[in-house]
């Protein structure tokens, strides 16, 4: 096999892996300001939250999952968030109601404190 064919045989799997990895990370970045403002739609809806509330909850809990400072921590620190009178624990309780799929353990809220 000549050098060019060897290089092609080596590069094709490498490029495929890079394309697959970039396709897996197509989630939008955390926008804590927007999500904190969306939290107002959650007030009073612990049983059947509206769609906008669920979008905020799933994004806040799901984005940055496993990061040192998850998206949820950044959302609750925004100045608009305290006006909703929600807290981390309420959002985490709403997460499975909103069909969130990430595992949420007891230490999830502790990471933000």
Automatic annotation (TrEMBL):
User: Key word Hydrolase present in the record?
Assistant: no
State whether keyword Ribosomal protein applies. no
In this chain the Bifunctional inhibitor/plant lipid transfer protein/seed storage helical domain maps to 26-95
So where does this one cross the membrane?
A: none
Classify the source by domain of life: Eukaryota
Q: Tell me which positions the record assigns to the signal sequence.
A: 1-23
Q: Which UniProt keywords apply?
A: Signal
A UniProt-annotated Pfam family: LTP_2
> Can you name this protein?
Bifunctional inhibitor/plant lipid transfer protein/seed storage helical domain-containing protein
